[in-house]
TrEMBL record:
GO cellular component: cytosol
Name the UniProt record assigns to this protein: GST C-terminal domain-containing protein
Residue ranges constituting the GST C-terminal domain according to the UniProt record: 1-92
Swiss-Prot/TrEMBL GO biological process terms: glutathione metabolic process
Sample GO molecular function, one term: glutathione transferase activity
Signal peptide: none
Domain of life, source organism: Eukaryota
Matching InterPro entries: Glutathione-S-Trfase_C-like (IPR010987), Glutathione-S-Trfase_C_sf (IPR036282), GST_C (IPR004046), GST_superfamily (IPR050213)
Length: 98
């Protein structure tokens, strides 16, 4: 828990480059590096979902990232995986707290 508050306070500024990158790809309607989903998208999605567990409102100041998470999470196979026990029950940090 030490440092969590400061980390989450700095997070919106750290996410700005991703919001900017998305805005440059079809106005935020494409993916992180172009018009097709890539490994980078799955990595960024995982990072953003973890941050939403730590702070559910962390994307509120980044509407393109918030829409990106919703859009990718709605893809049928990804949606099924995100609802699976393997994903839902996985620890996201080493201290057992979420």
């Amino acid at each position: 828990e030490a440092g969590k508050e400061e980390y989450l306070k700095a997070l919106p500024e750290c996410l700005k480059p991703f919001e900017t990158l998305l805005s440059q790809n079809e106005g935020g309607q494409a993916f992180i590096v172009g018009s097709q989903i890539s490994f980078a998208d799955y990595n960024l999605l995982d990072l953003l979902l973890i941050h939403q567990v730590l702070s559910p409102s962390c994307l509120d100041s980044h509407p393109l990232l918030l829409a990106y998470v919703k859009r990718l999470s709605a893809r049928p196979k990804l949606k099924a995986f995100l609802a699976s026990p393997e994903h839902v029950n996985r620890p996201i940090n080493g201290n057992g707290k979420q």
